[in-house]
């Protein structure tokens, strides 16, 4: 299902909170605002809120994707066009968790776009503002985040029953293949660079409650809002989304650690298309890269075959490899999110990507030498950037 129409056209303007002001959060917040929705950035601290106000209460978007897009000649020959020029989403509000309000206003529509490793903490900061009429969109790389939130905050069926009416929101899970990054340039804290055009898909996560509660209006509102942006968003059913999440996990598990460890852009993982003018003629490099890709994708496919047997026909090693190479090519100029994390000395999402696959493999008796090695090397890289024991 594809949803469209601006907020103004639809005659609704429901406020949307976005938690996570990284590259992805800012991209979604700016596009939602651009579509006419009132947007509030839910920032970490009052200091961030003050900095946001001082920078004009606006989000900047730089359309870097134009540099590698196949239609760049056509777009650029038409002169500067509104769709490719840098733009700003203005009149964006910001707030921070306040410790002193006993019954703060409920948040009905929340996009949670933090990094996977920050999501539980972020959810905790906002949990008291959510209720059964709220909808939370989870937009993380990796897998297992929804389950971790359930385990941490709504741990037992008994508690579900107690909390049902008052507390548990509806969850929408999203997957995003738009490339974006934030640069550490001063004055650009609230600017996101849209480096590769992708798409995003969303589905309502079936409730664990029995009987399932009826969907709140906020679920429809937020899906309509996301569908009205220029981010090529579609709404699908949970089983289709689950399939897409598994493919995206495979792309993140193969591209992200290698680009983070080798400090290279995504395109280096795919051989150049035939007849391309690529400068690199090192056949040995392409052959070993191809062999890495094949073994990594075969391992992921073997894990999926045991963990999700009903999907196995679709998630063959070849289907996974084709998808990963496609993503590597379409985001060829991207520095993957893991490379960005490692370069800035931040913790990475490897625990929710290769770590998740290693745990899933163990659970189903599938050996995972490739994912274990990638996981270990990224963990080593993280540790080495935080400890100076051998300096
Ligand atoms: O999702 C990504 C990421 O960097 O995390 C990919 C698809 C690999 C694009 O860079």
UniProtKB/TrEMBL annotation:
Keyword flag Protease: no
Biological-process GO terms, alphabetical: pantothenate biosynthetic process
All residue ranges annotated as the Ketopantoate reductase N-terminal domain in the record: 16-159
InterPro entries according to UniProt: 6-PGluconate_DH-like_C_sf, 6PGD_dom2, ApbA, Ketopantoate_reductase, KPA_reductase, KPR_N, NAD(P)-bd_dom_sf
Residues in Ketopantoate reductase C-terminal domain copies: 242-382
Keywords noted in UniProt: NADP, Oxidoreductase
Span of the signal peptide: none
EC code: 1.1.1.169
GO molecular function: 2-dehydropantoate 2-reductase activity; NADP binding
Tagged with keyword NADP: yes
GO cellular component, one term: mitochondrion
Protein family according to the UniProt entry: Belongs to the ketopantoate reductase family.
Protein name as catalogued: 2-dehydropantoate 2-reductase
Organism: Coemansia erecta
């Amino acid at each position: 299902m594809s949803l469209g129409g601006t907020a103004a056209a639809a005659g609704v303007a429901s406020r949307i909170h976005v938690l996570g002001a990284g590259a992805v959060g800012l991209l979604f917040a700016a596009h939602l605002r651009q579509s006419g929705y009132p947007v509030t950035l839910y920032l970490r601290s009052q200091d961030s809120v003050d900095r946001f106000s001082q920078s004009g209460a606006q989000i900047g978007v730089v359309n870097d994707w134009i540099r590698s897009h196949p239609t760049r000649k056509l777009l650029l020959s038409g002169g500067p066009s509104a769709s490719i020029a840098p733009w700003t989403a203005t009149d964006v509000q910001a707030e921070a968790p306040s410790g002193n309000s006993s019954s703060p206003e409920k948040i009905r529509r929340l996009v949670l776009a933090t990094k996977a490793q920050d999501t539980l903490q972020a959810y905790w900061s906002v949990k008291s503002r959510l209720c059964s009429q709220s909808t939370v969109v989870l937009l993380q790389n990796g897998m297992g985040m929804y389950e971790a939130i359930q385990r941490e905050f709504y741990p037992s069926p008994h508690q579900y029953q107690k909390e049902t009416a008052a507390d548990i929101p509806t969850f929408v899970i999203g997957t995003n293949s738009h490339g974006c990054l934030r640069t550490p340039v001063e004055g650009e804290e609230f600017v996101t660079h849209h480096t590769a055009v992708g798409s995003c898909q969303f589905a309502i996560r079936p409730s664990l409650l029995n009987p399932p509660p009826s969907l709140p209006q906020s679920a429809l509102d937020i899906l309509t809002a996301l569908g009205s942006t220029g981010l090529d968003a579609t709404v699908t059913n949970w089983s289709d989304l689950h399939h897409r999440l598994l493919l995206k996990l495979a792309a993140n598990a193969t591209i992200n650690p290698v680009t983070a460890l080798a400090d290279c852009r995504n395109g280096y993982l795919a051989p150049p298309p035939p007849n391309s003018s690529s400068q690199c003629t090192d056949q040995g490099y392409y052959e070993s890269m191809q062999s890495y890709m094949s073994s990594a994708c075969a391992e992921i496919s073997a894990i999926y075959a045991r963990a999700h047997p009903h999907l196995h026909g679709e998630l063959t090693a070849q289907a996974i490899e084709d998808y990963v190479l496609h993503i590597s090519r379409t985001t060829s100029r991207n520095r993957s999110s893991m490379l960005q994390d490692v370069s800035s000395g931040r913790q990475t999402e490897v625990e929710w990507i290769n770590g998740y696959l290693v745990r899933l493999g163990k659970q189903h008796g599938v050996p995972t030498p490739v994912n274990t090695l990638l996981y270990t090397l990224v963990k080593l890289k993280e540790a080495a950037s935080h400890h100076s024991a051998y300096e």
